[in-house]
Every structure is written in C-alpha cells, then in structure tokens.
Amino acid sequence: MQSGRISEHGFLADGSSAVLVDRAGSVNWWCPARFDAPSVFGRLLDDRAGHWSIRPEGGHTSERSYLDDTLVLRTVFTTATGAVAVTDALALEPGARGHDIGRRSPRVLARVVEGLAGEVPVLVDYQPRFEYGMVSAYLTDSGGLIDAAGGGCRLRLRADVALDCGEDGATARITVRAGETYRFTLGYAPPYGDAQPATPDADQVVADAVAGWRSWAALHDDYQGRYRDVVRRSAMVVQGMTYGPSGAVVAAATTSLPEQLGGDRNYDYRFVWVRDFSLTLQALWLAACPDEANRQFSWVGRAMGRIGDEPVPIMYGLDGERDLTEHALDHLSGYDGSRPVLVGNDAWRQRQTDVLGEILDAAWLMRYYLDPMSPDVRHLLRALADRAVSDWRRPDAGMWEARDAERHYVSSKVQCWTALDRAVRFGSRLGDPADVARWAAARDEVRAAVLTRGWNERLGAFTGAFDSDQLDASVLLMPLVDFLPADDPRMRSTMDVVERRLSRDGLLRRWDDDPAGFVICSFWLVGCLAKAGERDRAGRVFEQLAARVNDLGLYAEQIDQATGEHLGNFPQAFSHIGLINAAGHLTAADERARGATEGDPQPVPAGTGPREGAR
C-alpha cells in the first residue's frame, strides 16, 4: 500500500517534530528527535522506509478533522459493518500550557481507536525503519511492550492488544465493536543512556495535548479581522512548525517533496531561513502575540552572532547551526519517483543580499521592544546596514536561490533598499549623523537603479533582474515593503501584467516556466491589490486561494494550476504566513475605506519579506 498524496496528509506537532498521517490511517513521516533528524517512518519518500497504519480491513470511507483549536486529529472510518474513529496526537509535556507548550517534548505519539457503531475489523501494521529507511530494527516483545532498536534510535510501543512480531515489524487484526477502545502509545529515546522511551497512557496524552493546544489558542484570540477562522488555523500551523526550545520556525516539516512530479528540484526545508524572518514576525504579531515575535528576534540575533567580512548567513539549523551540507539518500526512490532525495541544503553557502532587509525590517517592526537597544543588537543592525551599502551593487543568488549563476535580482536590490530605509528611520538610535547620511545616500542610489534598470518599458512591468525581459512574481514585494505605493502607475501595470501572464484562478507562478502556482506569491498579489484599494478583486483572489487548502486547512508550497494537486514540502509555513498577512492587508484596506486616518493603528505592520528554500 503506497503513501497517500501530499494533500491527503494531516499534520501533528509537538514543538520538536512533526507527524504526517494520511487519510487511510498511515503514519508516513516522523523524525522524533527533532524536525531535521532522521526518520523512523519515511513511507512518504519510499514505500520501504517505514510506516504505522491503523485502518479498517476492506473497503471504507473516511472523514477527518482537528479537534477544535488543536492539532489533535480525529479520523472516522465508515465501513459496511460499522464505524470506528482513530484519534492521533503528539504528546506535549504533561501540564504544559500557553507559551510553554512544545519546549520540552516527551517525543511520544498516541493513537486511540474507538468503536462508534457495529463492528469493524481493523488492521494494525507497525513497520519502523530507522535513519530514513536504511536500518531495519530488532523487535522484541516483553510483556505487552514492543521494543525496536537499531542504529541511533530506540522505540517502544505500548498497545492494548497483542501484536505478532516478525522480522520486519508487528501486526494485529482486531475487531472493534461499538463502545470499545484500544490504545497505542509509541515513545522514542536515543540509543544509549538511562532514559527509556516513554509510553504514557494514550488517553492522557490526547487529553493533555488538547488542553495544551487550547490554552495556547486562548492566548491568541485577539484577531478580529477578516477571515478569522482560517487565520486562526494558519496561526496554529505556524506554531506547530515552531521548534520549541529556540522559538525558530522551520520552513516545512519535510524534505524532498518535489516542485514537479518526477523532477529533481527536491530540497530539504526542515531549517530556518532568515528570509522568512520579517514576514513570520508580522504573522505572529497579527495572529498571535508579541511573545512569539520576541522569541523569534532573540533567536536570529543569537544565531547570527557577530557579523564579519564573510557573507551574511541566510539560513540556519534549529539551534543556529550554520553548516547544513547537503547529500543525497540514494537508497530512497523519492515521492512518486522524484529523485534525488536530499538531506541538508547547500543554499546555506549562497550570498543572498535580500536577507539584510529582512532583519532590519523585523527590527523596525519590533522597535518598541528594542528600546533601549542593547549593544549587541545595535552592532548587528549597524553591520547589516553597512553591508547593504557595500553589497547592493553585487549580484547574488536571489530569493529563489538559483544554483546556476548570480544575477542582479530586483527583489534583492529592493530588500537592500529596505535595510537602508529602516536604518535611516532608526536614525540616532542606530548611528551617528554621518552614518545616517551615508545610509540615506545609498538608499537613494538603490532606488534610482531599481526604477531605471528594473523597469521594462516594452513589458510595462518590473522584471526579475536588472535589464531583463523575464517576469518574476517577487517584484510584488515592492509595495509590501513601501518601496513604491501599490497605486503607482508602474506598480499597477506590473500587477496587471504579472496576474495576466502568470496567474490562473488566483494561483500565481513565479515565472513563465515555473511548473506550478506558488502559494506565497499568490498571497502577495492579494496584499498588493488590497493596498491599491482594489478590495473586491483582492477578496476574490484570497477566497480562491483559501479554497485550495486540503480538508484540514493545510497548504503545501505549490499547487498545480491545472490539476489542483499540492506539490513541494508540506505543510509549508510560509504559505500559511502568506494567508495570515494577506487577510491582514484586506482588513487594513477595509479600515482605510471606512475613513481610518494615517495615524490609526494598523492591523498589519508595514514591512514584509519573502521566503523560499533552494531554488
């Protein structure tokens, strides 16, 4: 039995890792040590890489949903003879509530099977494979506990039913009758040391996870703007993508899910991109509260350290690691035959000058929380502004992380302008008068260059690189960072050309040959239209996009414009962040239409920043 399609998966999280379980009841992805650790279930990338399925025997239908305000998943299977429900939860630390959830994950997956009607034969198939499927574990059954050990991992499965252990895994066939409950708890631990894998009561795991997630949701209930329900769901997904110990938000839960079926652009997104930083902070600010935003800023400052002469790092591991060297897992066939399967991401070696703007924009957003400014933060921001002065003239790999050649990408220049503009706004808090004058002069040079060399009169649009005739949706960032007003004639023309040439039913490709619609770019278009005063048009595009989530409200990175199939790594944090901020731009446009003055509080902070993995 093969893994379900990308969009058929639900997402569970515990602040350290993520589980993907498909609508047929199969856990097809779990890296229990942390998001970027080796998997113990990897069927998503190869049928032989491990899974754990609990499903009815024979034909059935399934419906599923999250329990309200949680990432606890309930799937109801209906057969000709009855119905059963499977509830899946990753454990939070017992008793953790509010902002403490996810900081000390016990690394436990609980599954509870309940008989709802009639009787249903249910098959349990437990097939762990360690280190991305390279290691088959030794299974031993000792008094109702099944231990699996091999390589750098130990698992312990506690079950209410006896399972038959074989060489490859353990199986059981049970008949579940109405009113009966069967519980399964799977715990992880490193191979050596005194700590054993935890196997707490499954009902308690579920109850504690429900209480923990709901306590977090209750602290983030202030958003009253447009599309409140989908904003709240996306905010919870972003929280689920947050690595609890550091507060960093990973780009996605997976590696190597392809941009194009059968293609080779299959990258590892289980890391943290500086490019995501400003826009992530906006979304957390809008849909959550400043606590998460403060943790994000503290994390990036610590991860970057003191800036020297080397290229500014553009991405990190979850604890701030810099070396993310990429290698292929040649033994895996890849999702739907899409190879290579990669671990690590060599984009960490690139120069991407747009990240300078991301950090200074985020600092401007957080300016009231940075007062008084600590010496280390001041040094970091000054160094980044100075780097923008020297580096804006240089080509780079761009936000899509091109691996063929460096170019003078317009979006990189615009974000260098953002860095310099925010530094000038900080003024004496960041530098002396000579510094501010130098930053302002460079800012004006960047702006003049972009307006001259980034504009293509024949196309009637800003293009992806200087002196180019190739469209690129990244130029939609220009109004979102206040480089140009959205109603500037050149910007309005660019928006029209980009939408006409690259969009279909609200889905916007990045460029002409992009294989699928890119979700975050589509939401940038919504923001531009809203800022231009085209509220109805922006709302229509937003609703087209919002309708493209899966049945649990989850997005991948891309969506095929023709078939609607989700592609790329999943769930994609920035697709959800794009939704949150687009809803905020629509809310702000409504307030302006009602006569809000320039000094009124805005529901969306001014700046934004893009994101993507290796491009």
List the helices and strands and how they pair.
Layout: E1 9-13, E2 18-22, E3 26-30, E4 51-56, E5 61-66, E6 73-78, E7 82-90, E8 108-127, H1 130-133, E9 135-136, E10 138-142, E11 145-150, E12 153-159, E13 164-165, E14 170-177, E15 181-189, H2 202-218, H3 228-240, E16 242-243, E17 248-249, E18 272-273, H4 277-287, H5 290-304, E19 315-316, E20 327-328, E21 342-343, H6 355-365, H7 375-391, H8 410-426, H9 433-453, E22 455-456, E23 461-462, H10 477-480, H11 489-502, E24 503-504, E25 507-508, E26 517-518, H12 519-531, H13 535-546, E27 558-559, E28 566-567, H14 573-593
Helix pairs in contact: 3-14, 4-5, 4-6, 4-14, 6-7, 6-8, 7-8, 7-9, 8-9, 12-13, 12-14, 13-14
Give your account of this protein's structure.
- This protein has 615 residues and is α+β, with helices and mostly antiparallel strands.
- 31% of the residues lie in helices and 21% in strands.
- It has 14 helices and 28 strands.
- The strands form 7 sheets. Strands 1, 2, 3, 4, 5, 6, 7, 8, 10, 11, 12, 13, 14 and 15 form a 14-stranded antiparallel sheet that branches.
- A hairpin with a 4-residue loop joins strand 16 (242-243) and strand 17.
- The protein is globular.
- Residues 597-615 have low confidence and may be disordered.
- Pfam families: Glyco_hydro_15, TREH_N.
- Residues 3-168 form the Trehalase-like N-terminal domain.
